[in-house]
Prior knowledge:
Elements: E1 9-13, H1 21-36, E2 40-44, H2 48-54
Parallel strand pairs: 1-2
Amino acid sequence: MTFARPGRVLLLDEPEQRLDxxxxxxxxxxxxxxxxxxxxVVLASHSPxxxxxxxxxxxxxxxxx
Length: 65
């Protein structure tokens, strides 16, 4: 649904959950296409691959001990 509607901002919470490597590649391609079309993308993720391929900047959150 996120990609079916036009929008200038994508706010995604772990879009990689329960995806195999092939499907993750499709999601990365779709997110990249929207970003290249001018959309701002903000996402939360635990996926090193997704972050390496898409992130321009990162904010790392860690729990205090």
